User: What shape does this take?
Amino acid sequence: MTATREILWNVGSLQVLILYILLVLPVAFLAFGVARRVQMWRRGQPDTSRFDRWPERARAALTKSILHGRIVRRGKLYAGLMHANIFGGFIILLIGTIIVLIEEDITVPLFGWSFYQGDFYLGYKLIVNLGGVMLIVGVLLAFARRYLIKPKFQETGPDDLLVLVFLLLLAVQGFTTQALRLAVEGDPWGPWSWVSYPMALPLSALSTGTLETLHTANWISHFATTYVLLAYWAYSKMIHPFTSLANVFFRRFEPLGELRRIPEIEAAEVLGYGKLEDFSWAHLMNVDACMHCGRCLEYCPTFNTGKPLHPRDLVLELASFQADQGGIWSGELGGEAKTARHRWGKGAERELIPGVVSPEELWDCTTCGACIEHCPVYIEHVPMIVSMRQHLVLERGEFPSEVTPTFNNLERFGSPYPIPQSQRDDWTKRLAEPVRYMAELEETEEVEYLFFVGCLGSFDERNQRTTLALCRILQAAGVNFAILGKEETCTGDPAKRIGNEYLAQIMAEQTVETLNSYSFKKIVTACPHCFNAIANEFPQIGGAYEVIHHSQLLNDLLASGRVSLDPESAMARGKVTYHDPCYLGRYNGVYDAPREAVAAMPGAELVEMRRNRNRSFCCGGGGGRLFMEEQRGSRINQARVAEALETGAELLCAACPFCMTMFEDGIRGVGADDDFQVLDLAEIVAGSMVEEPTVKQ
Amino acid sequence: MFSTVRQHYQLISAIALVIGVALITVAEMPSMHWTRVFGATAISLGALGLGIYVGLTQPGRYAAARARLASIKQQIGIVMLVVLFLPALLGLGAGIAGLFNSPGGTGWVIATGALILALMLAATVAAFVIGVQALTGHSPVEGDDAA
Assistant: This one.
């Protein structure tokens, strides 16, 4: 006797007939919803960069999405395993159903061949039962997370719950139907259905008629639930398995820190994102890929300090607006719209800004990139936000009033400060040993390093101390370097992030022109914002250079012994904590070099803040925020300083002039300036080394 | 040829649907079971075609019907929940009732069955309540927007 079972046992012809004919409804609903979404994405602007590197894209889709590589992550085990169980269980059950369909409707009637028997059948039963258990466990974990654990960033709306309810019901119906059949048939291979078999034993006490009636009812309701879920698919978060997969596949491969320039800006008819049609098609798909998980919020400085910008809500606001315009959905399924993502039906005719996205949301962003870094499906929040800022700045001339001087200074003086360019190198007068200028070098001479000082390092008194310290170290170590001096201008980073792409392009082109006129091996800079612009954005305009951050150079000099440290130095004795600048760490992956350098200081004990490395927390100064007032919520820099104080350290090591400025202010703000200080890595190294002073006192 | 197909997309989809229904019906006759897969495929393709066609070219079509559906979606949803949940609840409840008159199986298997039935019943009842709450707008909304 071969192990198998009768497919469609206890199901009449009429029921099967109705089942198949009714298939038209959910499939048509699904197709309509998907077609509407695709049609909405097609309204977006072309973006051909998403169609290269196919093998890499396929690999990313497989590993990051299907195999959950970006969903099950460090610190996200609960949510990751929850999702993996739901997804894995559902896929197993789907494949199980397809196998039955192939046996019943294809191989047996067409070829007279049955494979649904014997060992295959028994293995099938084991695995399909496992799939059902995985699905139920995953859904219960999800309910527990929403009702009991309640992470701070979690929102629960009707759609989240209904999807879970339907999935749980699907699995329960499957087990119940199976158990009812086993109870009637007394199937000798019943125990292989290791979940429904124990359920069948108590059921077998009931009469056969009752069991058969219940079986038919469960079978019908099981398929009805499948149909409901299928029809609901394209209109609920259930769409995310497809949109997320597509989003991961069509992700951008540029460095995280690179913002694309607007090509031929003088002739461009559209500047930035002012309406959905201005978005690239990929960004329109981005907003439909959001699965509402809220990971973008966990390390977001604006969300965590009570500001209007919540990256998830911004994306969902755009998604609901798109749905409105596409006629995809027409109102919340249950109750009143309470949260951003449930604002469907609020009007397709609204203006994007401020009707859908408020200017406050856009201006609060520090462009730290935490949202992108932690998004499981690579949604590109920052490029979208900067593009909407571009629209406000370039098309409407609307931006925070305090930014006006910044723009004016950049135009007039080549830096965000109202200081003439002729004073850019005044800091050099404080050096005991003069620095060399690129312009003064012999034409044939190639320096090892061009030290790109940056605007803050040149003009800001506090950051000049970092610049001086770095020069002292380089001179003491005998590094062959030179500076641009008065020829140096801003890279355009603040203007670009604020949305003044036009000005940013002028600044960047001017800098590239200057750099291209000299011969050097590498660029070193103490400013991660300059570092990011030079490394990731200058190649777009013909400026390809090898650039390193000063923390990397310092670490190399220390490791190679070119800088000798004084073992008795009290500079960094005790606990020291290091803050990862977003534009250095998250955007460019430089995490270890500064830490190794700090750890090498005599008597220093490096202690980590709660949020560190790619999970670091912004200082609040990026995205042009350094030049704006922080008018909403609590202060980001003070929140970060509080984290640094929690470590018990007395010294905060910074590696960015923007962070330095924010922390100086933050330390004063929390009243810790008596016993806590922030120093740049260069200052710490310079203060710890053995050398003759080269800075005039 | 393709442009002709595109022009008659709606008609072709409708024909596929009709053929599909015919084949599915025929499949219930003796020794004609082999037509079912073709019928199901034709129905699926026809439904896909119609859905895509309307979605891409006439999104406003059936707007009134959709608006009518949307206006009673809460009622539809609750009726649907009751209809979909009831058989499972009855099945699981019957299993619990059967425990008191169980004819066979070893003790630990019965105990396991009882435990699974009880857990599934509890989870299903909870899911039903959550579903009704979600549809009636009484679901919890945590987080920053909750206020």
